[in-house]
Write a structure and sequence with these properties.
CATH architecture of the largest domain: 3-Layer(aba) Sandwich
Protein name: Extracellular solute-binding protein
CATH topology of the largest domain: D-Maltodextrin-Binding Protein, domain 2
InterPro entries: Bact_solute-bd_prot1 (IPR050490), SBP (IPR006059), TAT_signal (IPR006311)
Pfam family, one: SBP_bac_1
Structural class: alpha/beta
Largest sheet: 5 strands, mixed
Oligomer: single chain
CATH superfamily of the largest domain: Periplasmic binding protein-like II
Distance between the termini: 24 Å
Strand order of the largest sheet: 2-1-3-12-6
Number of strands: 13
Number of domains: 2
Helix content: 40-55%
Number of helices: 17
Length: 440
């Protein structure tokens, strides 16, 4: 039978070093804030490993199927029997079903902070010993694979959202093409001025639960808010929460500077193409936006794409974390070989390809410090600046439930069916018992 649900307490979380989403770009502290060794049952570092493994990934990184799997097999002698890529939006329920049935079909799965928390707490992911962590991994990037002071995997890339703008659009609108908006007020003014000829100044991706959550959370952080207080009480209906919802509604319904398609776009992979094809002027997106916007076939280029910090409402800037990683299923029958894959994905060999071919931020300290990284991904300079400001994702065991309930009220507010205060009050009332269910 699956491991029983473990109810945490607020005291345990606050005292045990809870890890929040939000990788910074440098640092050497353990994700739990402690140097204690991992508890018994954690997977230790392995020597030689063989056999075969199966991997269930999302559709973010094509570099593995396009050559890195072959490299891994040559280096380790381990066979990747099955490597499947699936849409991120379909994976949560698939993982939950697989784990509940103790299915051992896949040894390795992709994960992010919310799923690491949810499935790790449920006992469905293999804990990894602190001693088994590669020394080259940037420690804060482990937030994507950690919860409650335990590590359940290794990161495959780091990611923080920043602002991208089309310099040609700015110049034609009489705006400085080399200086992006520094505040929310400047951003709104620019987006309004850029909305012309059937093209909107700003586009985002809030067409599914995860997207609605991310866009709301980002705006709440830009308002200087926090999603939870120090005791993990939700703050959706706080002044910052209501202000964030109001800013989004105003941008869409009052200023009419947000593309209505934003409410249907469900994936950042689609948003990057909207920008790269010159169909919008400003996006807040992940680092791979640069790679797509400067590749062959794009109507933008390295010369016409600007990049800078997200413009804040009550703070200079803030952002959300989008780092991903790999975890090992507790039901895997070859955990040693699976661990070899995790080590390979976070190694300099893989990280070089992820940076240069796809434009994601590296989790390898060696690659982070390599001058070739800045040359291949100039927006690294902006990410270094972003470390001075709050970056969070709040991955928790209840993240999926929060996405679902919040998206309903965000969508209703955006469509004028609920006032921002009404929407946030309702979402707050629905979230509180969910948090209590987990924390007691």
């Amino acid at each position: 039978m699956p491991a029983p649900h473990r109810t945490l307490t607020r005291r345990a979380l606050m005292g045990g070093g809870l890890v929040l989403g939000g990788a910074t770009l440098a640092g050497c502290v353990s994700p739990s804030g402690s140097s204690d060794t991992a508890s018994s049952g954690a997977l230790e570092a392995t020597g030689d490993a063989g056999g075969e493994i199966s991997i269930l990934d999302d559709n973010t990184n094509s570099v593995f199927k396009n050559g890195l799997i072959d490299t891994f097999q040559e280096q380790t002698g381990i066979t990747v029997k099955n490597y499947e890529m699936a849409n991120f939006n379909d994976l949560h329920d698939r993982f939950a079903t697989m784990f509940a049935g103790e299915d051992s079909s896949y040894d390795v799965i992709m994960t992010w902070a919310g799923w690491s928390a949810e499935f790790g707490q449920a006992g469905w992911l293999q804990e990894i010993s602190q001693d088994a962590l590669p020394s080259d991994v940037i420690r804060p990037a482990l937030d994507a694979v950690s919860w409650d002071g335990k590590v359940y995997g290794l990161p495959k890339f780091a990611s923080v959202q920043t602002m991208f703008w089309n310099k040609e659009h700015f110049e034609r609108a009489g705006l400085d093409p080399d200086a992006g908006p520094q505040s929310w007020e400047e951003f709104v003014a620019a987006a309004k001025k850029l909305t012309t000829d059937g093209r909107y100044g700003y586009t985002c991706d809030m067409g599914n639960p995860a997207g609605a959550y991310q866009n709301f959370l980002r705006t709440m952080l830009l308002c200087g808010g926090e999603l939870y207080d120090s005791d993990w009480t939700p703050q959706l209906d706080s002044e910052a929460g209501v202000e964030a919802m109001s800013k989004l509604v105003e941008l869409f319904r009052v200023h009419k500077a947000m593309d209505p398609a934003s409410l249907q776009i469900t994936n950042a992979s689609d948003l990057v193409e909207v920008f790269a094809q010159g169909n919008t002027s400003i996006v807040f997106n992940w680092p791979f936006q640069w790679s797509v916007a400067t590749q062959k076939g794009a109507k933008t280029s390295a010369e016409t794409v600007g990049n800078g910090l997200l413009p804040g409402v009550n703070v200079r800037s803030a952002s959300i974390d989008g780092s991903e990683g790999y975890a090992i299923s507790r039901f895997s029958e070859n955990k040693a070989a699976a661990m070899k894959w995790l080590e390979f994905a976070s190694s300099a060999t893989s990280q070089t390809e992820i940076v240069q071919q796809e434009g994601w931020f590296p989790v390898s300290q060696e690659i982070l410090q390599d001058p070739a990284t800045l040359e291949a991904l100039p927006v690294v300079e902006t990410y270094q600046k972003s470390t001075e400001y709050v970056t969070k994702r709040y991955g928790t065991p209840w993240s999926n439930e929060l996405d679902q309930l919040l998206s309903v009220h965000v969508n209703r507010a955006m469509n004028g069916k609920e006032e921002p205060q009404e929407a946030m009050t309702a979402a707050q009332q629905e979230l509180e018992p969910i948090v209590e269910k987990y924390l007691g």
